[in-house]
Amino acid sequence: MVALVDAIARRAPYLAHNVLAHVRSLFNWAINRGTYGLETSPCDRLKPSALIGPKQPRQRILNDDELRAVWHATEIIGYPFGPLYRLLLLTGARKTEVAGGQWRELDLHKKLWMVPPERFKSNATHLVPLSDQAVAVLRELPRFTKGDHLFSTTFGEKHVTGFSRAKVEVDKLVSKRLGASPPPWVIHDIRRTVRTRLASLRVPDMVAEMVIGHGRKGLQRVYDQHRYVDEMREALELWAARLRDIVTPPPENVVRMRERV
User: Fold this and answer.
1) Among 51, 85, 93, 110, which one is least packed by beta carbons within 10 Å?
2) In the predicted model, is pLDDT for residue 223 greater than 80?
3) Rounded to an integer, what distance in angstroms lies between the CA atom of residue 41 and that of residue 188?
4) What are the backbone dihedrals phi and psi of residue 80, each rounded to the nearest 5 degrees, phi first?
5) How far, in Å, CA of 256 to CA of 252, rounded?
6) Sheet holding 126-129, edge to edge
7) Given pLDDT bands bounded at 50, 70 and 90, which one contains residue 124?
8) Any bridge partners for residue 126, and if so which?
């Protein structure tokens, strides 16, 4: 176990912390079941801070140039990961929520995505209001006859996998577009970027948190049963407009006027 965590920690300390936590939980579950002949866990005496170092919270967000480069990369890589990345950028949803999406969860007329409890972290239905740009991305997706999945390489029977390979391709295209490799980033950083940009657009914190699927806590969760769909929709429309301004090159006449100035 130490050798495994050490090998990961040399390249990705944050990931090493997560791996150790998951392995610890797995062994604890197996011991509690009492059917696997296990009485102790190889993780019992391992202290993450001593083995890996303190867990530093991730703070990476994508700047305008990087967002523009990622959006451009989605045009090149195409289906399924191109539109998948675009929906991540437009909604701030989790990778698994978007990748596992099915047509039955969508109401494009109402512009609403209803992520069911079994696919949402808080074990509740998560409502994702869809901007016009998000609806446009969804309308361009292929429809399969064998299955209902939005993103699939098996004609809709199973949802897409292979995120690591796609990310390598996106990184190559982003580096080419920028002329240099940007600081390392992971797909989850897109969510942090969306959340940060919502704050910059003066979206109230509670609404911004609900947009990215962070549930209310304590008494607020008990007594405030308002779903804030309209508020989330307004926030995501604001962000979609801002993202469009970032990724869309200005008209040639505007560029010429800037050059003259």
Assistant:
1) 110
2) no
3) 30
4) -90, -20
5) 6
6) 106-107, 112-115, 126-129
7) confident
8) 115
Residue 240, helix vs strand vs coil: helix
- In sign, the C-alpha dihedral spanning 83, 88, 91, 95 is positive
Other C-beta atoms within 10 Å of 41: how many? 18
Res 261: pLDDT: 47
Angle at 207 between CA 211 and CA 117, to 5 degrees: 45
Provide the residue ranges of all domains of the chain, joining segments of one domain with +: 2-51, 64-247
The model's pTM is: 0.81
What the block records as the tokens of 183 is 């600081």
Given the candidates 1.10.443.10, 3.40.640.10, 3.40.50.620, 2.170.8.10, the CATH classification of the domain at 64-247 is 1.10.443.10
- Assigned token pair, 19: 């791996």
Bridge partners (DSSP) of residue 115 are 126
pLDDT tens, position by position, 69-122: 999 999 999 999 999 999 999 999 999 999 999 999 999 999 999 999 998 877
Number of H helices, E strands in the chain: 13, 3
How does pLDDT run across 29-46, given as a tens digit for each residue? 888 988 888 888 888 888
Apex 67 CA angle, 166 and 76, nearest 5: 45
